[in-house]
Q: What sequence folds into this?
């Protein structure tokens, strides 16, 4: 069986005529833990949306093999004023098994309680969302992610605006998922977290600057190059011509596994 979970070939994404991710080529190994780093506006969140199928590519392909995908967006994309309880948001982790309107079974309730206990929110089932701190809300979202039982987990700034204790606890959960054989891609802006906890890093500046071992990627030279690329982009320019990649991860292998998905488009 191939160890590849995701494979990109000239993967290009964008919005309203403006490129956001250019010509990404390379692969993500099954069971790996990868940080996606870069400045604001460098295409990090856009890439996750492309992988999740929320945003269609302009050109190129993203081929993947997994049973289930879990995508956790930034907290800023969530409406916490909606009148819902912790149990309501966490139980959405069952939707692939029960549907959005499916009734929870006694076994589901046990699993839900266990997930809340795992994130330090035991007994929070009936708490309203607007009563939670930022760290508690993120813990609840991680509990929901756990219930999705996904092979591929996409996390967008999961440690942003939360306290140090919560960051430590959630990093431990993420490493536990990887130890179980799951693949995790995590958008981060904190370089110290990247260097301390993530073995692999993709450094983006709309195009891939460097991809591989974190110790090799997160160098001062690469970070300077990333800033230079980011500042050079012209927001008024249209789509670039499709070309062979000059940057990217070096591993290129075939795919195998239970499910293959492919998203493709060309200019």
A:
């Amino acid at each position: 069986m191939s160890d590849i979970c995701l494979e990109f070939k000239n993967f290009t994404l964008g919005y309203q005529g403006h490129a956001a991710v250019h010509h990404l080529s390379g692969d993500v190994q099954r069971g790996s833990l990868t940080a996606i780093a870069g400045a604001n506006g460098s295409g990090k969140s856009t890439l996750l949306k492309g992988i999740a199928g929320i945003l269609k590519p302009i050109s190129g392909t993203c081929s993947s093999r997994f049973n289930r995908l879990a995508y956790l967006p930034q907290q800023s994309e969530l409406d916490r004023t909606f009148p819902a309880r912790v149990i309501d948001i966490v139980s959405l982790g069952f939707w692939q098994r029960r549907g959005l309107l499916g009734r929870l079974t006694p076994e589901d309730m046990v699993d839900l309680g266990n997930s809340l206990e795992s994130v330090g929110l035991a007994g929070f089932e009936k708490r309203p969302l607007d009563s939670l701190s930022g760290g508690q809300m993120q813990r609840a979202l991680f509990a929901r992610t756990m219930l999705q039982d996904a092979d591929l987990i996409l996390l967008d700034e999961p440690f942003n605006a939360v306290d140090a204790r919560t960051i430590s606890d959630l990093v431990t959960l993420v490493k536990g998922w990887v130890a179980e054989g799951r693949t995790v891609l995590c958008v981060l802006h904190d370089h110290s977290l990247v260097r301390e906890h993530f073995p692999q890093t993709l450094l983006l500046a709309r195009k891939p600057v460097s991809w591989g071992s974190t110790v090799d990627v997160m160098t001062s030279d690469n970070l300077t190059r990333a800033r230079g690329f980011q500042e050079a982009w012209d927001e008024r320019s249209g789509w670039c011509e499709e070309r062979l990649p000059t940057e990217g991860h070096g591993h290129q292998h075939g795919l195998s596994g239970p499910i293959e998905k492919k998203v493709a488009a060309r200019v």
Summary: The first strand starts at residue 4 and ends at 15. Strands lie at 4-15, 18-29, 33-37, 59-64, 69-72, 152-156, 183-187, 200-205, 207-213, 261-265.
